[in-house]
Design goal:
The complex is a heterodimer of chains A (about 120) and B (about 110).
Chain A lengths: L3 E4 L2 E4 L4 E8 L5 E7 L6 E7 L2 E5 L6 E7 L2 E7 L7 E8 L12 E2 L3 E5 L1
Parallel strand pairs in A: 2-11
Antiparallel strand pairs in A: 1-3, 3-8, 4-5, 4-9, 5-6, 7-8, 9-10, 9-11
Chain B lengths: L2 E3 L3 E5 L4 E8 L6 E6 L6 E6 L3 E5 L2 E6 L4 E6 L8 E7 L8 E2 L3 E6 L1
Parallel strand pairs in B: 2-11
Antiparallel strand pairs in B: 1-3, 3-8, 4-5, 4-9, 6-7, 7-8, 9-10, 9-11
Chain lengths: ~120, ~110
């Protein structure tokens, strides 16, 4: 069991559908992340929220739209995705404010396995 | 540029010891993380090093040499459940980004 909860675990959608991925953590972490992971590859950072504000967008296509309604929740809205967007989408959170040196491991959820038809 | 290298695959025997190496070239260094990821599951945090030396945590230890840009993860008394991918990640800059290695797939055989 992980302390970061993601729903749904699996999602199959067509290229014209609109869906949302959800992530929740109750560890009091103030940084939350979205990653995309393809098979046998490391996680690829998409977005970072710090104190509910978007701090990093890794040039992600606009068909992916993140939202952070509060410090515990993170959503990823999906629209008009392409088959190459099929992947495991991981949410993570980490503690400690500010930047610099510090043991701030990112804690991952189990992910949503997304398939685009 | 930013680069992290680790072996693609390793094989070891149950009960043995295995060392997974990671070398990095990054602009700046603010710590190195090791994660374990079983197939189809989330990465789980194993260890963190920011100063030179060895950090021990049960059967797992991690070592760092900043001058050599080198780390290793040592797994002792290997168990079948240790078969997984092991990811090395470096926090290089003053933000929350991690630079990830491609991972080492470890197979533990009976």
């Amino acid at each position: 069991d992980t302390e970061v909860t993601q729903t749904p675990k699996h999602l199959v959608m067509g290229m014209t559908n609109k869906k949302s991925l959800k992530c929740e953590q109750h560890m009091g972490h103030r940084a939350m992340y979205w990653y995309k992971q393809k098979a046998k590859k490391p996680p690829e950072l998409m977005f970072v929220y710090s104190y509910e504000k978007l701090s990093i967008n890794e040039s992600v296509p606009s068909r992916f739209s993140p939202e952070c309604p509060n410090s515990s929740l993170l959503n990823l809205h999906l629209h008009a995705l392409q088959p190459e967007d099929s992947a495991l989408y991981l949410c993570a959170s980490s503690s400690k404010t500010g930047t610099g040196v510090g043991n701030q491991p990112q804690h991952f959820g189990d992910g949503t396995r997304l398939s685009i038809l | 540029g930013q680069n992290i290298d680790q072996p693609t695959e390793m094989t070891a025997t149950e009960g043995a010891i295995v060392q997974i190496n990671c070398t990095y070239q990054t602009s700046g260094f603010n710590g190195l993380f090791w994660y374990q990821q079983h197939a189809g599951e989330a990465p789980t945090f194993l260890s963190y090093n920011v100063l030179d030396g060895l950090e021990e945590k049960g059967r797992f230890s991690s070592f760092l040499s900043r001058s050599k840009g080198y780390s290793y993860l040592l797994l002792k008394e290997l168990q079948m459940k240790d078969s997984a991918s092991y990811l090395c990640a470096v926090k290089a800059g003053n933000n929350r980004k991690l630079i990830w290695g491609l991972g080492t797939s470890l197979a533990v055989n009976p």
